[in-house]
Write a structure and sequence with these properties.
mainly beta; 259 residues; 21 strands; single chain; 54% strand
Length: 259
Amino acid sequence: ILSGSFNEFGAGFDIASEGDGFEYATQDFGIRSMISQRAYPAVPAAAVLDPKVLNAANWDYEFLVNYYDYDRRAPVSVEAIVDGQRRPLSLQAGTTWNGSWNGLYPMAKNTQLCKRVYFEVKRSGDNAVFRWPAEGDIAFGRRTTPAGAVDRSCWNPYAEMPGAIPIPPVISPTVVIDSPAAGTETGIVQIRAHATDDGKVKNMEVWIDGKRVLRNSRASVVKRWNMAPNAVIPGPHTIVVKAFDNEGNVGTASVVVTK
């Protein structure tokens, strides 16, 4: 801590979610010259800070985003996306090309529970977009229990806590098989399907009779299936299409075709 060779540091603070009553702080020390400044990520860090005052009518969560660009390009926008809603952040400290951006998110006491947020920065010049975290979301939120204690748990943004106000259930992707339809098929069959989700569809898979025949990283699939006499035995065959979102939820659809 007292070493003069370190010229930068980062700090974090949290109250243990295990409920042991202890408060924890961490500090990391570094030297910027240790790595090439051009190699720094555009968004090296972002965080959600707990409310500073818990007896107020609103609990104000603070969003923080660090942005850096070696070529001194300012961001076009710095935003927090809370449950799909975009909220702009403003420069708090530093410069537009090497600074910290923040904003407050008020939640009415005892009326909201877990929410999810991720951060996006769009860079000027090339309009490149950077996301933190790269995948998924940060969960945040708290409430007071009937006994008046503060429940700090918010591990799963859609996990309902005992005695809590109901919140949306886990939403899996919706999968639609566009072709083929159920019935009799012969020759070359085009398997086409697409998926939608409240977040982002990460992967899709096609399974035929329990065997995976295709996997991609898009929200749609196209697969040619040869049902020629020497390729597929006569009888019913089951096609299953699966879609996976960033939260790990899985949606499926199936159709049975007969040769």
